[in-house]
Amino acid sequence: MKISFMHTADLHLGKQFKFKHIRSPYGDFARESLFNIFGKMINTAKKNKIDFLLLSGDVFDSPQIGMQDLERFSALLNRIPETEVIILPGNHDYYQKYALYGLIDFPQNVHVFKKDTLEEFYFSEKKTRIFGLAWTKDTYHELPFSGHVDLREEDNNILMLHGDATHASSELMPFNISNFDYFDYVALGHIHQHQFLTKRIAYCGAPQPFSFKDSGDFGMIVGQLENHRLETHFIVTQTQKYITININVTPDMTIDDIKDACIEAAGETNYNQKYYRFVLTGYARSNMNIKILDDLLAEHFYYVETDSGQLQPDWDIDKILAANEENVIGHFIKTIGTDPKDPVSRKALYYGLEGLMQNGGEA
Ligand SMILES: [Mn+2]
Distance from the CA of 103 to the center of ligand 1, in angstroms? Predict the structure, then answer.
């Protein structure tokens, strides 16, 4: 029997985002974007008459998700009565007796794994068995499942797991995927970067990047199964992007020059929903108030922050000359002059010194 499915995980609905710009509304926007993407997924499921929506854990950022968020979530699932929705609790939203999402009445098409031993939901009309086990506490040193199930040839057999297939010593439910390669499809959650570990075993990844640590594409996996033949596609769903750019500062640059360098390096015309971080390295003139750079850039970007932690103050040329009187560095300074007036010579002095000092001069 032919079936279709959508596989997503790690939505972290309700997540509290923390940005360096704490007075800003960005956290609210980012949190709302997760519901927005989930709403679009629901529309996609409806339009394409998807048979199964697999939610492989960390759907909620915590088991204490608020009632309003939970009702929004439930109402969205209510829009796709023809799609069977399978929820696997992960480490962030592990199942507890008093977890709100375990107490509310979900629509009939919603099925939640609630035990940390292998359970299954069987959909006889679609000849499909979906196996999984819930997190019911926050740490698992091993998967509480041997890996063996007797499968029937006539069924579609899907396994859902939330845990770490990449680190055997993980406390977040490590497992060895080679134990599960006899399933038609294994829908994994937990790692936010999507990856196909084999043709049939995949992390769908988070639908949206969450911080500057997240690079690459974020989306979901859609698939079809028929007579154990599997076809899958990764679909990008992200609406936001985090971009980190290094800017090399030299002492000849004014604050406006640095601002322009940042804008030029970004090289985009549409900044909406893009989070920029500029990491400044090199040497700034000693009288520069770098703190105002954030404000100068703020007019230009949707979100911007700067990291000037690695930025060094400009050198005291006279002091360097005194300490390097007899070597090539001193000779270089004397050739160009300690305080050249024309910009080209100034640049030559700073760039040349940067190279020479890296090779062991005394500052
Ligand atoms: Mn997780």
Answer: 22
C-alpha 57 – ligand 1 centre gap (Å): 7
* Ligand 1 center to 53 CA (angstroms): 18
Residues 141 and 25 in one domain: yes
pLDDT at 123 over 90: yes
How many structural domains is the chain composed of?
A: 2
pLDDT tens figures, 29-51: 899 999 999 999 999 999 999 99
Lookup: tokens for 260: 């322009």
Asked if residue 118 is part of any domain, the answer here is yes
Domain span at residue 305? Answer: 241-358
CA of 340 to the centre of ligand 1 (A): 58
- Residue 12 Cα to ligand 1 midpoint, Å, equals 9
Output the CA 118–ligand 1 centroid distance in Å.
18
- Count Cβ atoms below 10 Å from residue 236 Cβ, excluding itself: 11
Residue 339 lies in a domain: yes
Distance 203 CA to ligand 1 centre (A): 11
Strands (E), the chain: 3-8, 52-55, 84-87, 110-112, 119-123, 128-132, 156-162, 185-189, 195-196, 201-203, 219-226, 229-236, 241-249, 274-284, 303-307, 312-313
Is residue 153 a part of any domain in this protein? yes
Q: Is 200 inside a domain boundary?
A: yes
CATH of the domain at 70: 3.60.21.10
User: Ligand 1 centre and the CA of 52: distance in Å?
Assistant: 21
Per-residue pLDDT band at 28 (split at 50, 70, 90)? confident
Instruction: Out of 198, 219, 236, pick the residue that ends a domain.
Output: 236
